[in-house]
Amino acid sequence: MISQQSFDAVTAMFERVSGIQLGESKRALVTGRLQKLAQTRGLQDVDRYVQALLDENDPEELVRVVDKLTTNETYFFREPEHFDFLASLLEARPRGAGSFRVWSAASSSGEEAYSIAMVLADRLGAGGWEVVGTDLSTAMVDAARRALYPMERARHVPVAYLKRFCRKGHGEYEGQLLVARELRDRVHFTQANLMQPLPDLGSFDLIFLRNVLIYFDPASKEAIARRVLGLLKPGGHLFTGHAESLASTSLRLRTVKPAVYAHA
Predict the structure, then answer these.
(1) Is 33 a catalytic residue?
(2) pTM score, two decimals?
(3) Looking at the structure, do residues 32 and 148 belong to the same domain, yes or no?
(4) Choosing from 135, 184, 205, 210, which is the catalytic residue?
């Protein structure tokens, strides 16, 4: 197990970079994930690895640490009420209303972004929409671009969407699925740290900021939401996770539905 000194040092460094706090309850997780990085360096001792990390101050190794310590557990069509609401918004949208852009702001390995894309492709057809996915972890961005997933993550995908938008793996890819090219060409992923100035992403009709704010203290949570809301078009909607709330912030928002907000 990692020593208290090393745990405090690496979690403080991780918080400076990501804004995410890892408490004492995450000690086993931190130990296990750093152990794998230590082994790639030929080190069996996690404390020696942490000391080398601090001494070398290598940006590339720091990126690898952030990738390892970022929790990424997701699946397609998580919190399905949001996708039902998205479908209803698209049904009510006037014809010729212009391109519809959606941002998956903590896209992890891409399941959320591709779930959004399935709904958009179904309701809007081949043209007039785009999905952008961003994540802190470069490893997750790479995984999202590959669009290759274990089949069990698709357990909530509607059957019609599964047949239309997913390709079943065979041979060495048995038990996996690949998102169809027609969606992969319309969903774009890039690395972004929500605690820092954002890259030039443009503005969005809809922003999914789900299951990420729970990792931050109140001040950081409000700062992230304010930064993200700066990219939301007038009349647009912001989705958070159902376990998250922006009610205690000073942001000028109105609640449209549970975990769905719009500018006040």
Answers:
(1) yes
(2) 0.86
(3) no
(4) 135
